[in-house]
């Protein structure tokens, strides 16, 4: 992998990732951008009752919203139309978000583009490009985790207007949080309590139990296991674990890293075959990584992939119980979801 680092006109960093050494990517950004106009500011506040951190980022109200394809900021730049990516082509590119939720001392937000093709989704990529995306995720996780004040790095992709995506071009995001996120905090507390009570690792035991029980396992290889969790919150939800526990993406072994593209692409393609609809299935794909401080030894890197679509013509909305009380009600039995995801496997 070759990484080329340069800066955009307003000073933001941009990184090109290429499979070969010959690509030239250091193209200047010719746009008349003012650094002060794009910096924005955000604030982290603590909920006094729950203890959760909430990010206030009012400057994001003016971010780019559903631009036409010929004005897409994630396509490569062309003669007469400069975008967020100055190069006329790229494989994988990462750059600081122009409208970040986290800024300055409150962290950092980056955008990762998986392909220069405006109409290509992640599921359409080949295994070589997917391996390059994994390398970029790992590289950014390692670099951002080492920054002062960063407590957790979160790599994720939102796909589909139903999810709330405002740019159609295939992309994901990388957040460097100045705090450990509420979901990870709860996981760490549960895992620590289990360790104290039994001496075992809860992540390992959950994975072993799912593999032994089998009815919710969707896909299994020598290095990865994908299953619908016993208490799934979403209609179709899959958790993907490496068979050997590691805390984060940079710690993945060579064999698991090499095996990941085929497994992940198969899962995404199965999601697209779940429903009889012409458009791709909306989803969130979220990497859960250990925080930078305590809890790393017991944490297990894993990916959680889920869709809010519950049937071909119905979405799962977070209604009063979920939004108001965080008490989830799932309309699809996890065992049925797993069976359906096995049914739509590639031939």
Order of helices and strands: EEHEEEEHEEHHEEEHEEEEHH
- Roughly what fraction of the amino acids lie in strands? 15-25%
User: Distance N terminus to C terminus?
Assistant: 32 Å
| Residue windows where pLDDT falls under 50 for at least 5 positions | none
Number of helices: 7
State Rg: 20 Å
Oligomer: single chain
- Lateral arrangement of strands in the main beta sheet: 1-2-5-6-8-7-12-13-11-10-9
Mean pLDDT: 95
Main beta sheet, described? 11 strands, antiparallel
Shape: globular
Q: How many strand units?
A: 15
Q: Please bin the fraction of helical residues.
A: 25-40%
Q: How would you classify the helix and strand content by structural class?
A: alpha+beta
Question: Your description of this structure?
Answer:
The protein is α+β, with helices and mostly antiparallel strands. Helices cover 25% and strands 22% of the residues. The chain is built from 7 helices and 15 strands. Strands 1-2-5-6-8-7-12-13-11-10-9 form an 11-stranded antiparallel sheet, with helices on both faces. Strands 3-4 form a two-stranded antiparallel sheet. A hairpin with an 8-residue loop joins strand 10 and strand 11. The longest helix has 19 residues. The radius of gyration is 20 Å and the shape is globular. The mean pLDDT is 95.
List the helices and strands and how they pair.
Blueprint (H helix, E strand, L loop, with lengths): L1 E6 L5 E6 L16 H5 L3 E4 L6 E4 L35 E5 L11 E6 L13 H19 L6 E8 L11 E7 L4 H17 L3 H12 L3 E4 L3 E4 L8 E7 L11 H19 L10 E6 L13 E6 L1 E3 L2 E2 L4 H6 L8 H10 L4
Helix pairs in contact: 2-5
């Amino acid at each position: 992998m070759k990484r080329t680092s340069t800066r955009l006109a307003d000073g933001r960093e941009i990184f090109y990732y290429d499979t070969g050494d010959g690509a030239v990517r250091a193209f200047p950004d010719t746009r008349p951008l003012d650094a002060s106009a794009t910096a924005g500011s955000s604030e982290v506040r603590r909920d006094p009752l729950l203890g959760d951190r909430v990010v206030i980022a009012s400057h994001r109200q003016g971010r780019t919203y559903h631009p036409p394809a010929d004005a897409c900021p994630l396509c490569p730049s062309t003669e007469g139309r400069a975008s967020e990516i100055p190069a006329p082509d790229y494989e994988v590119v990462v750059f600081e978000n122009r409208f970040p939720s986290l800024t300055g001392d409150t962290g950092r937000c980056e955008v990762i583009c998986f392909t220069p093709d405006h109409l290509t989704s992640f599921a359409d990529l080949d295994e070589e490009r997917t391996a390059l995306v994994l390398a970029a995720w790992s590289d950014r996780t390692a670099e951002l985790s080492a920054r002062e004040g960063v407590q957790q790095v979160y790599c994720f992709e939102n796909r589909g207007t139903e999810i709330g995506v405002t740019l159609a071009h295939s992309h994901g995001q990388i957040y460097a949080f100045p705090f450990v996120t509420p979901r990870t905090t709860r996981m760490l507390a549960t895992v620590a309590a289990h360790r104290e009570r039994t001496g075992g690792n809860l992540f390992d035991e959950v994975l072993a139990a799912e593999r032994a029980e089998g009815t919710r396992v969707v896909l299994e290889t020598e290095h990865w296991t994908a299953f619908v969790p016993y208490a799934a919150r979403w209609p179709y939800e899959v958790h993907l674990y490496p068979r050997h526990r590691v805390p984060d993406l940079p710690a993945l072994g060579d064999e698991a890293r090499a095996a990941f593209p085929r497994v992940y692409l198969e899962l995404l393609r199965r999601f697209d075959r779940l429903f009889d609809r012409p458009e791709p299935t909306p989803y969130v794909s979220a990497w859960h990584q250990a925080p930078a401080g305590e809890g790393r030894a017991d944490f297990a890197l894993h990916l959680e992939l889920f869709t809010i679509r519950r049937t071909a013509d119905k979405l799962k909305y977070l209604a009063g119980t979920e939004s108001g009380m965080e008490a989830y009600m799932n309309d699809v039995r996890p065992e049925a979801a797993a069976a359906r995801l096995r049914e739509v496997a590639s031939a």
